[in-house]
Amino acid sequence: MTVTLQDCQKMLGLSIRGQPVTGPCVSDGWRARVATFLGREVEELGTRTSGVLISWLREHFGQCPQDADAETVGHYCRAWILHLFACVLFPDATGDTASWMWIHCLTDWHQAGSYSWGSAVLCFLYRQLCEACRRSSGSPSVGGCVYLLQLWMWSRLPVGRPEIMPRRPWFPGEPPRRQPTWAYIWDQVKVSHTRLDRAYLDYINEIDTLTAHS
After folding, report:
1. Structure confidence by residue, pLDDT tens digits, 74-122
2. Which of 27, 80, 113, 115 is the most exposed place for a label (fewest CB within 10 A)?
């Protein structure tokens, strides 16, 4: 039992069909590529080659000017997508970097929607979980779309999940493609609590006693 492509599509609303998300992963010249993508030069911060700081994106693209022209609006939209990727869909274990790796798939707006982003999110999550299991530092962390992992655990495992409360009505008259995903069932919940010093042990014990009919 594990997170599947169907879970990714139903919970996040991402396409699991289309072109694979692939491309060059050469870091040479990444600042120039980001500058072209966002319309703003990226400051050099030491030897960082993984991408731009999320704090930098928030500082320079936090609020689009009211009188912005179409080109500027486009740059702010790209920055928003890059921020979404870095914080929700493809966060790395550092939690503070927006990777440049996805830029080549986002440059053409019309082409960007043709990729199988759901497959990419799931593969990235699997890889991050694998890397997290092999870390031995005193403060290990995990990357990937843990939001998806949390939703999947709540829907599949009766351990530590919140109690579902009556949902708020969705906006009436919205077309099907703008209806909420299956994850909306968790929009209103009553969060369960446990003692911090016993949470890990309690949850592990509950998981160990699960059966096929739990």
Report:
1. 999 999 999 999 999 999 888 889 999 999 999 898 899 999 999 999 9
2. 113
Q: Kind and range of the H or E element at 51?
A: strand 51-53
H helical segments located in the chain: 5-12, 30-38, 54-61, 70-84, 103-106, 109-112, 117-133, 146-156, 199-208
Burial environment of residue 120 by CB neighbours within 10 A (0 to 12, 13 to 18, 19 or more): buried
Structural tokens at position 213: 């009919």
Q: Model-level pTM?
A: 0.86
| Bridge partners (DSSP) listed for residue 97 | 53
Q: CA-based angle 121:115:133, to the nearest 5? A: 20
CA–CA distance, 8 with 5 (Å, rounded to integer): 5
**Among 141, 90, 76, which Cα is nearest to 118's?**
90
Neighbours of 163 (CB within 10 A): 9
